[in-house]
Design brief:
Order of helices and strands of chain A: HHHHHHHHEEHHHHHHHHHHH
Mean pLDDT of chain B: 91
Domain DUF6596 (chain A): 156-246
InterPro entries (chain A): DUF6596, RNA_pol_sigma70_r2, RNA_pol_sigma70_r4_t2, RNA_pol_sigma_r2, RNA_pol_sigma_r3/r4-like, WH-like_DNA-bd_sf
Helix content of chain A: 55-70%
Shape of chain A: elongated
CATH architecture of chain B: 2-Layer Sandwich
Strand order of the largest sheet of chain A: 1-2
Number of domains of chain B: 1
GO molecular function, one term (chain A): sigma factor activity
CATH topology of chain B: Alpha-Beta Plaits
Protein name (chain A): RNA polymerase sigma factor
Oligomer: heterodimer
Number of helices of chain A: 19
Number of strands of chain A: 2
Low-confidence stretches of chain B: none
Number of helices of chain B: 2
Helix content of chain B: 10-25%
Domain RNA polymerase sigma factor 70 region 4 type (chain A): 93-143
Strand order of the largest sheet of chain B: 2-5-1-6
Mean pLDDT of chain A: 90
């Protein structure tokens, strides 16, 4: 079993024995560091037992030091409590995604306490100095210090945190998308919930396309131009299977609906064979569930494919032109409608408004492609 | 070692020799330009001279304090702003001459027609910490 998978369980054991969450989390981090150092030469037979023992010892050492510092007499050794791995893991997800935390803090705390990553790895992944990330994590721990460990939490907040981690892509040595998938799998094993399954399916279906999504030079390859032979069929099959089981329970939510759209794309052998009519229907469901303008923007693209660019442009009407990617969608629909000049102007505008480099470069290339067409 | 900031401007720098807006290049020329920029950064990482590089969105906001208990005032973006920074690279090099050499290489990134841009980059030394030995 992966060392990091044991992290939330071991924290849970310590908390059940009476340690407060912040101290338990510190002790387990220390134990993980020791494990990384000593296991290669001297691997334990019972990894979890070893971690519990060492983390508990670290906790007691710290608690004694603290007690001595305060010159208190009281014992720092609470009685051992029951051990239950799965519930503890679930409780940790709830705690780390507690609504009192900002999204950035919840993400950092989840990656450390549930994911077992070090502060340095998390800092590197989010391109901030390690000291900044360390402060963010300790502030987050102080924020949730008063939260009782056995309080039921909200699955929706946990899913939002995992979705954020997944969407961040990756930089540095930690692959955040893969980490988000691992944490969502672990959550799905701990709780039976159709939206958890929906999010897991969504992640698997998008992850399956990752290799095809960028060209060797790092530029973005749009869905329609991707080499579908490079999609990971095993991940797609797994995602579709999980989604079908979830949908059969008839408790639709936004992640299941998003996964359904991803599954329809995955199902098309070529871009031309995409079932856009069904995709529009799923966007209608999604719009009902979320009432999000971003969903209606994406729906306009699907309508443009299903019923033609004029219908797509009509679907754009009424949406705020300041929405992210609005200009890019309008450019695409105008080009399909044959208005190359408007499309080129809108692609250049979309590039100026792009929120990331890869997208900006892609949109600049689109404008360049139209502006450099023969006869212009 | 000394740190230098290489500033690239959307507006405000003297005109480049090869001064065609990027959305009027061919897509291949755009790709070649991007490749040159990322190869340049990779190379400086290998020589141990790269510190940081970031690109900025063209539209920003002016913000200022507006007194106790009041939210800050925001304004802009102003279309007439003369100077507009597009991005930067921070390098840590042995000498001013080396910084100039590298800025020159970056300015040679290919543009329209695959020819070097010859764009003007601004080179600014960082103010460093005081040295331990002063006499």
């Amino acid at each position: 079993m992966n060392l990091r998978e044991l992290t939330p369980q071991v924290i849970g054991v310590l908390v059940r024995r009476g340690a407060d969450f912040a101290a338990a989390e510190d002790a387990v981090q220390d134990a993980l560091v020791e494990a990384v150092r000593s296991w290669p030469d001297d691997p334990p037979r019972d990894a979890k037992g070893w971690l519990v023992t060492v983390a508990w010892r670290k906790f007691l050492d710290a608690a004694r030091a603290e007690t001595a510092r305060r010159r208190r007499e009281e014992s720092a050794e609470p009685p051992p409590g029951p051990v239950s791995g799965t519930d503890d893991t679930l409780q940790l997800y709830f705690l780390c995604a507690h609504p009192s935390l900002t999204p950035a803090s919840a993400v950092a705390l989840t990656l450390r306490a549930v994911g077992g990553l070090t502060t340095r790895q998390i800092a590197q992944a989010y391109l901030v100095p390690e000291a900044t990330m360390a402060q963010r994590i300790s502030r987050a721990k102080r924020t949730v210090a008063g939260v009782r460990f056995d309080q039921p939490g909200d699955v929706a907040t946990v899913l939002r945190v995992l979705y954020l981690v997944f969407n961040e892509g990756y930089s540095g040595e930690v692959d955040l998308a893969a980490e988000a998938i691992r944490l969502t799998r672990q959550l799905a094993a701990a709780i039976d919930h159709p939206e958890v399954a929906g999010l897991l399916a969504l992640m698997l279906l998008h992850h399956a396309r990752r290799a095809a999504r960028t060209a060797p030079d790092g530029s973005l390859v749009p869905l329609a131009e991707q080499d579908r032979g490079r999609w990971d069929t095993a991940l797609i099959a797994e995602g579709v299977g999980i989604l079908q089981t979830a949908l059969a329970r008839d408790r639709l939510g936004e992640f299941q609906a998003q996964a359904a759209i991803a599954a329809l794309h995955a199902d098309a052998p070529t871009a031309a064979e995409t079932d856009w009519v069904q995709i529009v229907e799923w966007y209608d469901e999604l719009a009902r569930l979320t009432d999000s303008p971003v969903v209606r923007l994406n729906r306009a693209v699907a309508v443009g494919e299903a019923d033609g660019p004029r219908a797509g442009l009509a679907a754009l009407a009424g949406l705020d032109a300041a929405l992210p990617r609005y200009a890019a969608v309008a450019a695409y629909l105008h080009e399909r409608d044959g208005d190359v000049q408007t499309a080129a102007r809108l692609y250049a505008e979309a590039a100026r408004k792009a929120a990331n480099l890869a997208e900006r470069d892609h949109l600049t290339r689109q404008a360049a492609r139209l502006n450099s067409r023969p006869g212009r | 070692m000394a740190k230098y900031l290489l500033l690239k401007h959307y507006r405000g720098a003297p005109a480049a020799v090869n001064d065609v807006p990027m959305d009027h290049w061919t897509p291949e020329e755009v790709s070649a330009h991007m490749r040159y920029m990322s190869d340049f950064a990779d190379r400086l990482e290998k020589t141990g001279e790269f510190v940081d590089g970031q690109a900025l969105a063209p539209e920003g906001t002016w913000v200022r304090y507006d007194g106790e208990g009041r939210p800050p005032v925001t304004d802009g973006p102003f279309a007439e702003t003369k100077d507009l920074i597009a991005g930067w690279m921070v390098i840590d090099v042995d000498s001013y001459d080396r910084a100039v050499e590298l800025a020159g290489e970056l300015s040679a990134a290919p543009g329209a027609g695959g020819k070097p841009l010859h764009e003007w980059l601004e080179l600014r030394p960082f103010l460093s910490l005081p040295p331990t030995v002063t006499e």
